[in-house]
Amino acid sequence: MERLLGLLALRTAELLNASDIARTLGLHRVTIDNYIAVLERLFLVRRLPAWHNNPGHRLIRSPKIHLVDSGLAATLADYSATDWFEQRERMGHLLESFVVRQIVAQAEWTDPDLRFWHYRDKDGLEVDLVITRGKKTWGVEVKASSAVHRKDGRGLEHLARQCGKNFQGGFLLYDGTDVLPLATSNVFAVPFSKLWEL
Question: Which strands sit side by side in the sheet containing 45-48, from one edge to the other?
Fold first, then answer.
C-alpha cells in the first residue's frame, strides 16, 4: 500500500492505468483496484471520471487519479521548492490536483448537486476539471505558467463546442495577475488567487 501511494504521488493528475501500476509493483490488477478503493475510502486519493457528452461512453473511459493532499503528494514524490522551476511539468500535476481539491471542497458546502469529471479526446485535447449540474457544464483548465497563449484555451473551446447551449462558461487558472478573455465567449484566463474569491 505504501509503495502504491508513493507511485500514485508521482502520477497524480494523470490517467489511471491500473494494469501498468500492477506490472510496475509486481501485484495483481485486482489487488491494485482494491487498494485504490481503500485509499479512496480513506480520502487519500480521488478518481475523477471521464466526461463525455454521451453518458454511455463515460463508463468506458479512463479516470484520472488525484492525491487529495498535494502536500502529501509532494512529500511522497520527494519534491522540494526548487523543483517548481526545475520540474515544472511534474509540479504542474501537483498544482492541478491542488486546484481540483480546492474546487471540490468549496462545492461540497455550496452546491452538493455538482458533479466532477475530466475531459480528454482522442486527439489529446483536454480539460482538467469539468463541472456539471444536470446538463449544465463548466470547464476549468490549470496552467503552471505566468503567461497565457491562445492554444492554452483549446480544450475549453472544444468542450464548449461539445456541449453547445449547455456550456455555461469556463476559466483557465494561471500564475498571472490579470483576468483575460479567451477566444470562446464566457471563457477567461484567471489568476490562481481568484480561487478563493469564487
Answer: 14-15, 64-67, 45-48
116: buried, middle or exposed (CB in 10 Å: 19+, 13-18, 0-12)? middle
Q: How far apart are the first and last CA of the chain?
A: 36
Query: Residue 59 above 60 pLDDT?
Result: no
Which alpha helices (DSSP H) does 111-169 contain, by range? 154-163
Query: DSSP letters of 152-165?
Result: GGHHHHHHHHHHGG
**158 close to 183: Cβ distance less than 8 angstroms:** no
User: 120-147, pLDDT tens digit by residue?
Assistant: 988 889 999 999 999 999 999 999 888 8
Burial of residue 7 (CB within 10 Å: 0-12, 13-18, 19+) is middle
Task: Tell me the helix, strand and coil percentages in the chain, rounded to 5.
Answer: 45, 25, 30
Residue with cell 452538493: 112
Task: Note the pTM of the prediction, 2 decimals.
Answer: 0.90
Measured CA to CA, the distance from residue 16 to residue 192 in angstroms comes to: 26
CB atoms within 10 A of CB 138: 22
To 10 degrees, the CA torsion angle through 50, 53, 58, 62? -30
